[in-house]
Amino acid sequence: MTDRDDGGDSCGGTGASRRRVLAGAASASIATALAGCSFSLGGSGYDRAALSEVAEGPDPSRPATHPVEIDEAMIADHREHARDHLEQVSDDPSLPNGVVADELASNRERVAETLRVQGPSDADGGEPSDDGSGSGETDDRSAEHRLHDARDVRADAADLHFQYLAATGDVTERELERLRDDARDRLAGFRRAWAYRAPSPTRALLVHALFEGLVERVEVDLAPWPRFPDDPLAGWREVGHLRGKVATADALLDDLDAYREQVATADAGRYRPALAAAAMWLSRRANRVEYRDDRALEDGRAGLSTDPGDSVAGYGFDVAREYLREYSKRAFNDVQHDSQYARTALFAAKRRAAVDAFAAAVDDAESSGGSVDVSASTVADERTRAVDAIEQTLDAGPTGLQRRLLEPAYVALRDGDGELRTGRNSDPRRAFAVYRYVARYADAATRASEELVGLLRAAE
To answer: What is the DSSP letter of 128?
Structure first.
């Protein structure tokens, strides 16, 4: 699928060719390293060193997916808040308890040093591409990390500030509750104005999935737990922790406001209904496919028409069933219940792909398909196919969306590598089956992405 209106990015034909050349070179490198290793590796008599070498093969690309620009002013604002808190704390606290005074002074120096190390930066945060994937992986990720660090130091400084106030007997629960209420009011205001606006359906999906995740974190940080200590003077550390949580919520709300200004432009559409409709349609389509193999999903191998035995196809069935259970109907309903429209749509697309990959594994298991002479060479070849399948799905675009839908494939690839390194079952057939699943899921994710984008456009 090429979706240049919503998914145009820098990963076009040249990038695709480069990936294929690199993948081919890596495959050739592994084949050379494993030359002569065509011996059978079934059971317990296999060479762990050879398999571990397969697991060290090249990994697929993991493009940055941050869908909005991180402005340097956002980072500077968090640091400025940190400095304001730091100025309220004496660098030589005069307290009756010398141990507490020394710890506060040490904490102050630690926060001050963090601010000095972070320092001002002129680095560019990177403009988001049309699909929200970011225009430069290194720059975009660096900006995300620096923003995260700036939030952390802001929270640490607020924590320190209220540690100091508590230790000097100058803070009350009422003051902390007022700050928390102010943040709750801000969150309520954000929710009231939250219309899921964006320039395009795919951008709306990625942007508002980010927003939903940040809002969820704000809600966690504003939970009044743990309780304010009965004796703030003795519980000065707990008071600081509570203040740090509110400061984190405030920092996230500041970022949400800045992000929303980027996407809530005059030409931006409203996509909440479209996201909800797309999620429901994808879920229904997944349910129809899953219904055919419902017994196999519920009962495992006992639900198959034939027993695949100790074969690659049997392991493939077990693997696909395990991954699908993470994207079950119940799991979808749980996500949907939280009214997170963008994340629900993404989950529905992942579920759609997982159902298709499971259906293919059931067909293999019941037809005794996928018979393979498992060896170091064939396992290496299957891993290469898995990596190539991920790269091809990314190339199909839109990259930001594909990267999100491929999260289960990245996890499965890591699981397969871990199986080769540690040998949970002392049998490389499971790793082979996991790599085969990765390729199947990646292929299904391309189709799920096409469906999702088409449904979003139809629902505009």
So the answer is: -
Cis-peptide, bond into residue 226, ω within 30° of zero: yes
Strand residues in 196-330 grouped as ranges (E): 197-198, 269-270
199 contacts: CB under 8 Å, gap ≥ 6: 263, 265, 267, 268, 269
- What spatial distance separates the first Cα and last Cα of the chain, rounded to whole Å? 20
* pLDDT tens digits along 267-310: 899 999 999 999 999 999 999 999 999 999 999 999 999 999 98
Cis peptide bond N-terminal to 128, omega within 30: no
- CA torsion 43-45-47-52 (nearest 10°) is 30
pLDDT digits (tens, 9 = 90+) for 113-159: 999 998 864 444 444 544 444 433 434 458 999 999 999 999 999 99
Which H or E element spans position 32? helix 13-33
Could you tell me which residue, 247 or 29, shows the higher pLDDT? 247
Q: Indicate if the pLDDT at residue 40 is higher than 60.
A: no
H-helix segments, 56-136: 72-87, 98-118
CB 160 within 8 A of CB 85: yes
CA distances from residue 15 to 18, 139, 238, 377, 396 in whole angstroms, order as listed: 5, 18, 51, 28, 11
* pTM for this prediction: 0.86
d(CA 172, CA 229): 10
Residue 283 near residue 452 (C-beta atoms within 8 A): no
Beta bridge partners of 198: 269
Instruction: Say whether pLDDT at 233 is over 90.
Output: yes
- pLDDT tens, position by position, 306-332: 999 989 999 999 999 999 999 999 999
Give the pair of three-digit tokens for residue 356: 């298709």
Residue 404's contacts (CB-CB under 8 Å, 6 or more residues apart) are: 65, 206, 209, 346
Residues belonging to the chain: 460
Please provide residue 197's backbone torsions phi and psi, each rounded to the nearest 5 degrees: -85, 145
Structural element, H or E, at residue 89: none
Averaged pLDDT, 392-403? 96
Helix axes 341-367, 201-221, angle to 10 degrees: 110
